Amino acid sequence: MRKLDETDMEILSILNNNARQPYSEIGEQVGLSGPAVSDRVNRLREADIINSFTININRSKLQGGTAVLIDLEVPINALESARTQVEADEAVEHIFVTAEGNIRFYARIGTHGVHRWMKNLLNKNSIKDYTVTLVEDAMWAPTVDGMEFAIDCVECGKSIDSEGEKAQIGGELYHFCCSSCLTRFENRYQRLAENE
Fold it and tell me: Would the pLDDT of 141 be above 60?
């Protein structure tokens, strides 16, 4: 994968603001043809930088319950199971895991009450304590401005630069930092496939 350039970042920023904008209009803004924009978007999708095109719903216009921000203090050994339980609840919209090992999430809960909902959401043993804050207004505005994207090698985990390699293996596209990592991965993949 080649390194992202300014045009790629501009395209990502435009798509972030309006993912339904035609490629020809994006091309006018970045100085490319519509097919050239389409090609760049396809490469960004292949590199797993763009995962999907979604809609941004203004939930304040919908009747969806009371908006709350909840901070969970969890034992370190219960972090993954608590996170899995929180992710599975359809009332939860955003989840963050802090550097301290706690979970913070934004949810819209129904009229049955936050404390009863929390009891049903999590096993008592998986949390130490929690705090609930009512949210008056919320805005989600992810941005790509000022960011650089890096793809990590699936073999060693290092960031891949312009010298990286990619290969289609078993129907999946994989990215590698060097030919040595690619060879090690292919050899291991082949050994595992032969043992099945």
Answer: yes
